[in-house]
Amino acid sequence: MSVIALPDRAARPEPRTRGRRVPVVSIGIIAVFVLIALLAPLLSPGDPYEQSLRLRFRPPVWEERGSWAHPLGTDRLGRDMLTRIIWGSRVSLAVGALAVLLAGAVGATVGLVAGYYGGRVDAALMRITDATLSFPVILLALILAVTVGPSFSNVVIAIAVILWARYARVIRGQVLTLMTLDFIAQARIAGAGAWRIITRHLLPNTLNTLVVLVTLQVGYVIIVEASLSFLGAGIPPPTPAWGSMIAEGRDVVTSAWWVSFLPGLAILLVVLAFNLLGDWLRDTLDPKLRQL
Amino acid sequence: MPAVIDVRDLRTHIVTRWGTIKAVDGVSFALGEGETLGLVGESGSGKSMTCLSIVRLVPRPAARIVGGEVLLDGDDLLTKTDDEMQRIRGRKVAMILQDPMSSLNPVFSIGMQMREPLTMYHGLRGRAVVARAAELLASVSIPAPAARLRAFPHQLSGGMRQRVVGAMAIAGPPRLLMADEPTTSLDLTIQAQYLGLLKELQQRHRFAMIFVTHNLGIVARTCDRVAVMYAGRIVEIGPVRRIFTQPAHPYTRALLESIPRFGARRERLAAIAGQPPDLATLAAGCAFAPRCPAAFDRCVEAPPETEVVPGHATRCWLHVPA
Amino acid sequence: MAPHTPPPLGAPRQSRDAPRPRDASGTPLLEVTNLTKHFVVRRGALGWSTGLVRAVDSVSFEIPAGSTLGLVGESGCGKTTTSKLILALEKPTAGSIRFEGREVSTLGGKGERAYRRSVQAVFQDPYASLDPRMRVGAIVAEPLVINTDLDAAGRHRRVAELLDLVGLPERAATLYPHEFSGGQRQRIAIARALALSPKLVVLDEPVSALDVSIRAQILNLLMDLQRRLRVSYLFIAHDLAAVAHMSRTIAVMYLGKLVEVGDADAVALAPKHPYTKALFSAALPIDFDRPPDEVTLSGEVPSPLAPPGGCRFHPRCPFAMPHCATDEPVLRPESGRLVACHLY
Q: pTM score > 0.80 for this model?
């Protein structure tokens, strides 16, 4: 049997990729904040917990009474804003990462199992998913805060508990599409069992979607955490968290504007960066799925 | 007989990441009233793009018609404005596509969908629209046409849907009907019915028809002439019977020989070596040369169209007198 | 003239006329008897009322070793369901499937696994039948991973052997499916189907999605492999000429029932059942010398939910007689094949 020559891809001229450019700015912002979070003890000029009533409400350095000792000013208890914002990034990013990863793992599992087995299993899992989707996340977190007490892990769990349903829905939809493709039937014909099909065939083909979803959701989680902290149901003081920092500056928004504004700006930057990165990922990763 | 449609040196290019593809590379043919041309070729041959170019529906901005003339009853379509083309499409030139489910809007009833061209192009109103729509459905042999107007596409079978699409196509009535693989998604016995229907409609309305397909069997039965396309060019064109019994171009010959026939007890089919060409890396010269069993040194240059006998032309150096 | 590619070296030239031997005990490789599959369809707002889709209704045929049975019919005829039953992707409602003399549905775990190894499939869509995230080598090796205890080196050798068998270079194993054309992907699918040296391969429209100039290559490959490996095929396609070319026997299905079964050439050139006649006349062979015997059917293919009574074909049959609406015909021998029709 004469051997078929493979198409010589090298013969094709180099593609002038006119796809969207890599979002360098977004990745840069995220990288900066991640670094700041990781190196907080080394980078922060002071102690986030150190209070000094004498130095209350000092404005940032570019204002009249500001000084380089506190470049971004101080808050109501005289704590250095720059330091607290740096330390606050730890909380926000940690909650963001942990909550989406936990929710992603649970949600993807539910979606894969529901989509693969179908029938009663699918119906039951989807009822649970639907119920979860309709539950307001803030309410759940508040309930947890009231009953079990606010803490870092409770916030992560509360957010993850609500979030997983979103992933489950989307992954299940993808799995349903994948199940109609012949290569799944082929795996069965080859003797593959449920475990192999789910882990070796379905999961890798849903990874793209998962990655995009996870990235897009990080921003949402950070905002939820900030909202919870703002409401007092999130990370308890005195741990610096951007949300509670905004809450603390609520009353002095007109005079000591920096106390609320600067943490808010930090949230804006990080969330925007993650959203833009997620958008770009979706545009670059998902179209390849259509090569199926 | 003056030609209804006269395509002269039509050229359409598509810009891709890997360079410019000459999807339609100098295509010329002419058709008279009541004549059917079969446009045969494989994926990438340019047959569908030729039809889209005739009605100027090439997918912009990547694809552009870059040259040639398309004369419909003497009038060059390539010089028309967008407004003028809109009045021509659906009225003087109609198209039937392969998948009837995507040709019909699934959320509107048949009657509502047929209403659009009838009111737009023919200025019919109210009951006249309904009457004309029912009339059109009856002319494509759809039973109980008045009741069918209220039905939705998903309630009809594939064959029925294609008939509805056909009814909308002949509403003009058109001067040219282009059918792009209209029966590929239909069952065989329904296919036979549908081809019979198209022939009947053509006899009644005398439109010219371009039938795009890869199925040579359909071409043999329904077409008067056939044009074989390869890599954007017509490599052979002529009367159906002559092309099938005395093909001039090696590609046509190889294609005919590779198709299984009934009752021909052959051990192996004569397969064509190689793969269909990658239009992005097409070398100059005859596009079929890499796979051609008769290729020789002149083939590095693109062969001109030469007449084998009047009415039968081919692009092959083997037929160019030395 | 296009060059005639010589058959592979070392393969004995066997004409299709030579009788295919059955195995020593005389049992055919696959024997299907009264195979039936009904699907229950729930209708109504709360799903109370039920309908029954008789997808496959009491179908019987056999496939000898090393031979090809062609199964033809239009949408709703049940050929896809039949193939799924044979591939054990669905369980029959009634009837039996015997493979090498043993009843498939009563096989235990080990027997079932052995059956899976012996029956494989190649499907229509070359773009959906290969996992886009796996390399070709892994795709072809997967049946080996699941069913054998070959080590990595052993699998690697077998994959190279299989790729060579289908005419692909060894380095294809390191590439991903999207780097191949449709025809090459089908070769990969064939290589995978042969990995466990099956005795029967179900070919469900293996070349319909390929370019015309590539189809002959793949059909030739399938015939060569059949000769070399003595594998049987269940060949399902709507290209009747291809089916007639590849098959020893042709079975024609309509709305779940077999209407004609017999030697391929007999059925294709001189069909007896009115439906078979219509089908083969609609297949439009390119033959200007044969007068077209146009048997164009009227009407649509009825829904399998409500098949007509008596002979299921009678509403569309140009030769229908009064009792065709009440009495269902059975397969009877006629002119060297089996036909289910009251005309005979």
A: yes
Tell me the per-residue pLDDT of B169-217, one tens digit each, with 9 for 90 and over: 988 889 999 999 998 888 888 888 899 999 999 999 999 999 999 888 8
Boundary-marking domain end, from B118, B140, B171: B171
B72 shares a domain with B19: yes
Number of domains into which chain B is organized: 2
Answer whether C217 sits within 8 Å of B271, measured CB to CB.
yes
Domain match, B155 and B178 both: no
CA distance B190 to chain C (A): 7
H-helix segments, chain A: 24-38, 40-43, 81-117, 119-133, 137-148, 152-179, 182-189, 194-196, 203-231, 242-248, 258-289
Cβ contacts of C292 on chain B, cutoff 8 Å: 221
Please indicate if any CB of chain B lies within 8 Å of the CB of A254: no
**8 Å CB contact of C1 and B275:** no
Distance, CA of B140 to CA of B304 (rounded, Å): 42
Query: In this predicted structure, what is the pLDDT of residue C285?
Result: 67
Shortest alpha-carbon distance between residue B259 and chain C (Å)? 7
Instruction: Domain of residue B161: give its range.
Output: 101-171
Chain B residues lying within 8 Å of C278, measured CB to CB: 189, 192
Give A 18-77 residues with CB within 8 A of chain B. 18
Residue with tokens 């164009």: C296
Q: From the CA of C319, how many Å to the nearest CA of chain B? A: 16
Statement to judge: residues B65 and B13 lie in one domain: yes
Domain boundary among B144, B171, B198: B171
Domain shared by B117 and B164, yes or no: yes
Alpha-helical segments (H) within chain B: 47-54, 82-88, 100-103, 110-122, 126-139, 145-148, 158-169, 188-205, 216-222, 240-245, 250-258
Query: Strand order of the sheet with strand B233-239?
Result: B93-96, B176-180, B208-213, B36-40, B225-230, B233-239, B312-315, B305-309
- Flag if A2 and C167 touch (Cβ within 8 Å): yes
Percent of chain A with pLDDT over 70: 90
Summarised one tens digit per residue, pLDDT across range A51-110 is 888 888 888 888 888 888 888 888 888 888 888 888 888 888 888 899 999 999 999 999
Find how far residue A218's CA is from the centre of its chain: 1
Q: How confident is the model at residue A280 (pLDDT cuts 50, 70, 90)?
A: confident
Complex confidence, ipTM? 0.85
Span A235-271, pLDDT tens digits: 877 788 888 888 888 888 888 888 889 888 998 999 8
Give the residue extent of every domain in chain A: 74-289
What CATH number did the domain enclosing B210 receive? 3.40.50.300
- Do B196 and B287 belong to one domain? yes
pLDDT tens digits for range A124-138: 999 999 998 888 877
CATH superfamily of A74-289: MetI-like (1.10.3720.10)
SS3 state of residue B304:
coil
Tell me, yes or no, if B280 comes closer than 8 A to chain A by beta carbon: yes
| Per-residue pLDDT at C316 exceeds 70 | yes
CB contact under 8 A, C212 and B259: yes
